[in-house]
Amino acid sequence: MPAAEPAAEHEITEADILAAERAHLAESRAALRTMREHTASLSADVAADWVSKQILESQLELRVAALADHPGTPLFFGRMDHDDAGSDLPVTMYVGRRHIHDGDEGRPLVLDWRAPVSRAFYQAGPADPMGWRRRRRFGFSGGELTAFEDEPLDGGAPGLPQPASRILTEEIERPRTGPMRDIVATIQPDQDVIVRADLPRTVCVQGAPGTGKTAVGLHRAAYLLFTHRERLARSGVLIVGPNRAFLAYISAVLPALGEVQVDQATIDDLLGEPTAREPAAVAAVKGDARMADVLRRALWRHLRKPEEGLVVTRGASRFRLAEHEVRETAASLRGTMRYGNGRTSFAKRLAHQILVRMEERGEAPDDRVQDQVARSTPVKQLLDQVWPKVTAEQVLFRLLSDPAELRAAARGVLTGEEQSAIGWAKPARSPRSAKWTAADRALLDELDDLIERTPSLGHLVVDEAQDLSEMQLRALGRRCATGSATVLGDLAQGTTAWSARSWKDVLRHLGQEGEVTELTLGFRVPGSVLDFAARLLPYVAPGLAVPRSLRPGAGALTVRRVPELAAGTVETLTATLEREGSIGVIVPDDAVPAYADALGEAGLAHGVLGPDPGGDERVLIVPASLAKGLEYDHVIVAEPAAIVAAEERGLARLYVVLTRAVSTLTVLHRAALPTELS
Ligand SMILES: Nc1ncnc2c1ncn2[C@@H]1O[C@H](COP(=O)(O)OP(=O)(O)OP(=O)(O)O)[C@@H](O)[C@H]1O
């Protein structure tokens, strides 16, 4: 029931309104509890058989989990009102994380933020009130409703900027501790457009650091699951992120939005963990989309000329196909379908030709005979000789270990230099004992798909997509071939040797048509810090719009030359610990142990961020290569010049590192700062 505004006999105070809204919150909480208890009481025994019972039980469990009331999370965060008697819209609606209805009458107490009608909460403004008169935002502390803020939608002059929302500002300024939070209460209109894009549409978001790309991608997944629940429950939604530490950081967002069934994976989880490493220049050649042609040729080179024709004996009769007939049959199928299907079709065609021979001799064989012939020993033997079963590993092994094979498959596609770069100098003994790099994994995946089709999911959210190689993008494209994708990234944060230079290319390799949208309003990094980092932009990604920050952040940036880096870091960290919030000490990868020792000796408790998610220490030493996508209230960066020198795209790495801070960034340097920063 909408909270009744108290009767106007006395002047309505803010306290009166707060009390009424708190009553609505209490009523909603009670209703959610009833909904949960009702679901928990449902029995799966009605299912007709054991399998259906298991399925129903797990669905009920998921539903109960989705109806959980997390005490720290408000059930609603906004309210819309109008007083137009002729309107079809409800007079009042509360917008929250999920639908809550009154058990007895089924009255909606809270509407899901993803429902079509809730769109107005994010999009309505004086220029287009969408039928509403007022937007109210609520402020919470823990689970308690502590504040509200009203915004008239009908009286304002269209086009004039709205006064800044205090609640939005507070939300953005809230110290960051622990994993990433959802932003459902404060999604901005341009973000909302991306979140609510239709399922069949692939969207690609170029966004400067902290513009909310990751947040938007996760909310889009939640929106799509709500809007196309059945379809996506069947086909699946997958979030692909750069590393496990990042996935752990974002892992709480979807469950907080009631979505507990979305998988998350790194590209290595999907394609297989690498067991070897290789120079970036070699990986860059292997990651190039031209490799797809090389692999196709390499695979089909496994077809062999028949040594002889086919002879099938049935009873006293023998039926023959000449060697040239077998050869022509194989040739007519070669490359027209997947290798595995081709093998099956080859057997069927041969059997059919034998059947024709039988008919020519007056027999009347039926389909069963054709199947028998296709599975007969002579056909199998011929199949193994001409169209052998192969695995992706066998094909890649032969390609990389046999220079003649590589030359034949790569002729006209890769230069001689490229061929020698990827060929193995010292091949392993066999495909089984071969070690595979991350780039090899994408090649194996391509081959797997050339042999058997890779199943497609319903929707993929790909974060930090600028860092994926063309071959990795093709691998992901296969996994959304009959679905769609949300592609997120920042060309300026591309740190791999094969990082994308254009989103059009990324979409092309992914095999998706889609629009590219740009987000430039930053929610994380204070303005002074963003301006400082943006000095690198002309060098790392000329042509990209310079990002603006929503937060001025005066005094947020300190750049200090120190005589000794470890001592300077200890001193800065000690001072920073006086302030609230998380602290990231970002240093060159190879310097991590030295900083860990220095902090340890100074008695400063800290953790070290590794590739796998770790503890939740307030102070973390972060190797520069793992900082992508993460954020900390306070960031201390030690020695930018060394971060730049450590890798080929070091300036882009520095840009990533300098844009992790929410409140303060302290840059410590002993060597001169990179000239691009000055
Ligand atoms: N509309 C919003 N309201 C409140 N906070 C927001 C909003 N949009 C983004 N944020 C916050 O801004 C921060 C940065 O968001 P996010 O990590 O999604 O940005 P990003 O574009 O992916 O950044 P990066 O490129 O550095 O990975 C997060 O703390 C996020 O919660």
From TrEMBL:
UniProt keywords, alphabetically: ATP-binding, Helicase, Hydrolase, Nucleotide-binding
SUPFAM superfamilies, alphabetized: P-loop containing nucleoside triphosphate hydrolases
InterPro entries reported in the protein's UniProt record: DNA_helicase_UvrD/REP, P-loop_NTPase, UvrD-like_ATP-bd
Residues that hold ATP according to the record: 207-214
Domain UvrD-like helicase ATP-binding: 186-526
Name the UniProt record assigns to this protein: AAA family ATPase
Organism: Actinomadura fulvescens
